[in-house]
Amino acid sequence: MNAAGLFENSGRFNHPLQCIDEETCCGFRYHLCTVCSLFTRVAADGEFTDIPKRPSHMKSVQFLFLGLGTSLLLTSCSMNRMATRQLSAALTGQNTVVFTGEEDVELARDALPFTLKLYETMLQRDSTNSGLLLVTAKLFTLYAQAFVLLPADTLPPERDKEMKIIRKRAKRLLLRGREYALRAFSAAHPGAPSLSGKGSIDTLLGNTTEADTALLYWVAASWLGAAAADKSDLGLMMSIRKPIAILKRVGELDDGFDRGAVHELLAVIGATAPKAIGGGKTVAREHFEKAIAFSEGKKLSPYVSFAATLCGEEGGRAEFEQLLKKALAVDTDIERSLRLQNTIYRERARYLLGTIDNCFPPVPAPVDSSAIDIGEAVRE
User: Fold this and answer.
1) Are the beta carbons of 189 and 128 closer than 8 angstroms?
2) CB of 270 within 8 A of CB of 280?
């Protein structure tokens, strides 16, 4: 019999099953009947098993054991959730540098997909774990940026169609990361409106504190990354005022967050976005200088990211080359927690230097018209 059959008249029990209690635990629903005190377990597939009915004189004893059984089952589920929380805390703790401290880029790239699916599996058991949601958002953003977008940018022009497909995939991954970051924020602020909802978020941001900086940063970073990955998505592009506002709020709460990560992103936005939403060369350079100051010489990414915004800019070749050489001068082992990021950006800097002529094509030497005239005269 399936679960629906439990709520119909049953000749087996000679009465309707009247459920006064229902608990869900470990993949089963547990029902307690008001008439015969039958404790029934309904499995996920709809089939059920039950504890056989006892003689009437044993009902009081049965109720006692049923109560104890229910308590044990609920305790078991609580213990499972507690174990999941403890495991996630161990895996996602702030002091964990398993990935960020990895120097073998290929190893990190190959391991990340499994880790992401593991975290998603854990979130099915503990869907409101703000810490686990946040680190899942971080890793989706890292994977999309470092192992999908950056390799796509190295494809030659004749593979443009393939590059667009890859960039769209990166956008989907980044939006997935944004969703986890939004859920992390919501879990930390029950009942608060969504940061991605319609209307102004000024009041919501005004109520945030320094404890929210990481949550806000990763919402903004994944959101802006998705927009940059697919600029043909007009709906996404039209929404970027919100992540920019969120990013600026992080700067207000903690100007030096993550060694200048906020200013690094704002420098790129300033160099590439219209003035109406915070763009402008002067603003970009101010944020770039702050990013360098907060990084304390331990990060390559501010140099590489800002250099990339100069690509194709008239007269920008010398500065482009200078910034990339400064990036390569940074010791990738100077900060263990930054080792993976620095190693990835070191390879990016080398690639950009090696293909500098793609950004700044050599200017052809001027033709000496007088020499041509002399040659023609000789032939005549």
Assistant:
1) no
2) yes
Residue 257, token pair as written in the block: 């967050």
Rounded distance, CA 100 to CA 85, Å?
22
Q: Cα Rg for the chain, rounded, in angstroms? A: 30
The answer to whether the beta carbons of residues 53 and 66 sit under 8 Å apart is no
* 203-207 long-range Cβ contacts below 8 angstroms, 24+ apart: 205/245, 205/246, 205/249
Who has greater pLDDT, 376 or 326?
326
Q: Please state the domain extents for the chain.
A: 3-80, 255-362
Is it true that domain 255-362 has CATH number 1.10.3720.10? no
Nearest one of 209, 220, 149 to 178, comparing CA atoms: 220
pTM flag (> 0.90):
no
The end-to-end CA distance of the chain, in Å, is: 107
CA distance 40 to 89: 36
pLDDT one-digit tens code per residue, 188-211: 999 999 999 888 999 999 999 999
Among the listed residues 67, 35, 49, 39, the one whose alpha carbon sits nearest the alpha carbon of residue 3 = 49
Distance CA 238, CA 15 (A): 61
Contact 333, 339 (CB under 8 A): yes
Give 245's contacts (C-beta < 8 A, 6+ positions apart).
Answer: 201, 202, 205
Q: What is the pLDDT of residue 100?
A: 87
* Residue 31 buriedness (CB in 10 A; 0-12 / 13-18 / 19+): buried
Separation of alpha carbons 17 and 84, rounded Å = 35
- Residues near 311 by beta carbon (within 8 Å), at least 6 away in sequence: 320, 352, 359, 360
What residue type is 123 in one-letter code?
A: L
The C-alpha atoms of residue 145 and residue 124 are separated, in whole angstroms, by: 25
The tokens 């899942």 sit on which residue? 136
Torsion of CA 69, 74, 77, 82, to 10 degrees: -130
The amino acid present at 52, given as its one-letter code, is: P
